């Protein structure tokens, strides 16, 4: 098949959607399909060498400088008609999603869209003058979904949310993004301990993701990690990622006297992120807006047990049996602290969860199986 994917974010940007689109493309091409990706220009100085990736001129968002809004002025538009496309798949309802809709209509192609993000929880990034209310956001999400020929969601939890917003049940298909397990079998190249002078006796707690308010990293630092350090001296908290809250969090770390314990690595390439998972002892996560929680699955695939807030997509993962993770039902610091200390000091329980996590991801979230499900959706629509 000839498949066009439209996304407002793509590698080398470092976020879940960019990663998902990239691994979709790679796996579909491995299975023999042609995938053409249309994205905003990342940077005028960045030269893309990847085949079948087309860029559009773009401007950065008001508050999130890493996020880009594509402008529909590009010679790439004239190439689309010659690609003999079978289907269009968009990954956001914004600039590239709107473009995907116009092109699908013009070329009479089916348009599939993945609902990756709970946009209603990200309204604070929009300037106040154009910021929609919660109810308006829900209506906008419903209206966008109804313009698509089929909506893909990563978990049943998100499907129920969209049904509650008024999207018909038979309009939605649940397909997790999937994990490319072969990427986790490669030897470690990035020595995290050496680069940041982390001693062998130190345990490593890890967070991976955008550094933003909705990720609750402030809670993890001040309410959880600070108390863990009081009980367990040889422990470090490594935060991999970047975002507009980093400066505030670095200031909070100094104010709490944790500057020798908390390490900010900044955003890293996916290979380095996987190396970080493998070298960590525990992955801790308190975000309440995840549609799937790809980072949770990646940590489990690495054999690193997870302790995470069980909301939205993360709930759909960790509420199952034998996941290799511990779900914290509500944002209660003592529950996080108790389980972190318990696993750091119980080798047999730790090893059991580590082994369980790898098996769980391989059996339930194989990338190949889920990409084949997506291809089946395309074929049925066509």
TrEMBL record:
Source organism, top-level taxon: Bacteria
Annotated Glycosyltransferase subfamily 4-like N-terminal domain residues: 15-180
Domain Glycosyl transferase family, chain residue ranges per copy: 189-358
One annotated GO molecular function: glycosyltransferase activity
The keyword Transferase belongs to this UniProt entry's keyword annotation: yes
InterPro entries found in the cross-reference section: Glyco_trans_1, Glyco_trans_4-like_N, Glycosyltransferase_grp1
Keyword Transferase attributed: yes
Alphabetical keyword list: Transferase
Protein known as: Glycosyltransferase involved in cell wall bisynthesis
């Amino acid at each position: 098949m000839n498949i066009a994917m439209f996304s407002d974010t793509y590698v080398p940007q470092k976020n879940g959607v960019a990663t998902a689109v990239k691994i979709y493309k790679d796996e579909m091409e491995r299975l023999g399909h042609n995938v053409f990706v249309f994205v905003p220009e990342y940077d005028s100085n960045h030269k893309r060498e990847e085949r079948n990736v087309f860029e559009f001129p773009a401007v950065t968002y008001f508050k999130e400088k890493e996020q880009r809004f594509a402008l529909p002025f590009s010679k790439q538009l004239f190439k689309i008609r010659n690609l003999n496309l079978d289907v269009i798949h968009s990954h956001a309802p914004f600039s590239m999603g709107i473009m995907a809709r116009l092109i699908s209509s013009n070329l009479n192609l089916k348009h599939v869209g993945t609902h990756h993000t709970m946009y209603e929880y990200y309204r604070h990034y929009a300037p106040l003058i154009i910021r929609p209310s919660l109810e308006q956001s829900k209506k906008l999400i419903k209206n966008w979904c109804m313009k698509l020929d089929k909506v893909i969601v990563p978990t049943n939890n998100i499907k129920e949310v969209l049904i509650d917003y008024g999207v018909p049940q038979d309009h939605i298909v649940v397909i997790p993004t999937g994990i490319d397990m072969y990427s986790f079998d490669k030897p470690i190249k990035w020595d995290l301990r050496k680069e940041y002078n982390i001693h062998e006796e130190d345990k490593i707690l890890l967070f991976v993701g955008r550094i933003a308010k909705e990720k609750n990293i402030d809670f993890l630092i001040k309410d959880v990690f600070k108390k863990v350090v009081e009980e367990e001296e040889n422990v470090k908290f490594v935060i991999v990622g970047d975002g507009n809250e980093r400066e505030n969090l670095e200031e909070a770390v100094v104010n709490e006297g944790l500057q020798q314990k908390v390490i900010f690595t900044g955003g890293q390439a996916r290979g380095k992120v996987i190396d970080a998972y493998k070298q960590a002892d525990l992955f801790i996560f308190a975000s309440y807006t995840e549609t799937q929680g790809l980072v949770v699955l990646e940590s489990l695939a690495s054999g690193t047990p997870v302790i995470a807030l069980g909301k939205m997509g993360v709930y759909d993962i960790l509420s199952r049996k034998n996941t290799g993770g511990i779900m914290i039902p509500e944002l209660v610091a003592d529950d996080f602290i108790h389980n972190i200390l318990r696993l750091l000091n119980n080798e047999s329980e730790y090893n059991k969860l580590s082994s369980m996590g790898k098996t769980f991801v391989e059996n339930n979230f194989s990338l190949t199986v889920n990409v084949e499900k997506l291809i089946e959706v395309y074929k049925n629509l066509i």
